[in-house]
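Action item from last week, closing it out:
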Amino acid sequence: MLLLTIESSCDETAVAVVRDGREILSNLIVSQIDIHARFGGVVPELASRQHLQAICPLVDASLEEAGVSLEQIEGIAVTRGPGLIGALLVGVSYAKALAFSLKIPLVGVHHIEGHILAIHLEQEVAFPYLALAVSGGHTHLFRVDGIGDYALLGRTIDDAAGEAFDKVAKMLGLSYPGGPIIDRLATKGDASCVRFPRPMLKKPNFDFSFSGMKTSVLTYIESLSGELTEQRVADISAAFQEAAIDVLLQKTMRAAQDQNLSRIVVAGGVACNSGLRREFQSAGASKQLDVYFPSPLLCSDNAAMLAVAADHYLQRGARSAADLNAVSNWPLVEAASHFSLSL
C-alpha cells in the first residue's frame, strides 16, 4: 500500500510517502524553530497558522520527491493526537478532505505510537520489546508486544524530559530549543560541580518526575554570586544532563528486568541526545540487552513514522470514520484498543 502521511502535532509540519509501511520514498519537514525561538517556546496560535501555510506546498513537494502522483496514493494517515489541538486540526482537516476527494481510506494514528514504531522503518526489531518514548511533550515507558498491543508501564507525573531540558536552557540564558544546546555544552562541562536530585528513583514504580529537578537547577543558579560564566553554564548543563539521563536510564533498565525483556527501543526527540545514546548503549552492553535508536530524523517529529502503524491497520481493514476529530489528550492504550475492535 502506498501511503501519504501527515504530522502536525506541534511546531513541525511533516509529510511523507511510504510504501508498505517500511520503504520511505519521501519524508519532508518544515520547521518553525526560527518563528518560536524569540518567544522561548512554542506559541500554539502561531504554530497553527504556520501549518496552514506549509501543508499544501509540502504535500506537493513530498509527492514530487517520491516520484508519484496523488492518484497513485492508496491511503492517508494523519496524527490525530495527542498534541496542540489547533495544530492537530490543520493536519486532520486536510487529511480528511483529501481522503474524501480521492475516495481512499483514512486512518488517524497516535503520535507516540508513531515514535515507538519508527525503528521498523530502518530495521526489524522482534517483539516484544520495551519502548521509552522521550520527547518535549512525552516521557512514557511501554511494553510493546506487537503493533497495536501496548501496555503502559510508567510515565512522567509532571514535566516531560524534553520540556525540562528546554526550561533549564532558558534559565541558563540559552536559546530555544534548548535540549540540543545543553547536549553540546555538556561535553565541555564538569558534571561534578553540583549533584542535582534524581527524583523517584527510590519509588518501586516506573513513573518519572522532572519538575523537582528543574526547580533544583533554578535554586542553584539563584544561589550563585555574579553572572553565569560560559564555563559555569557548561558545568550546570553537564550536571543537569547527567541527572536526567540517570533517571531515564535506571527506570528503563529496571522496567526491562521486571518485564523480562531483552530489547529496548528509545525514541522521540530526546533520543537524539548524544549523552543519552552513549549511556544507554553502554548499560545495554553491560546487561546483555539490545538497545535500539532510530536515526535522528526519525526521532524528531516526522510523518514517515506514522506509516508503520497505519499500513498495519489499513491492510487489516481498520478505518477512521468521516467524523474523525483531533484530540489533545489521547492515551495510547485507548487508541490501540479502538483499532483492535475495528479489525
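Closing note: Residues 130 and 143 are 5 Å apart (CA to CA).
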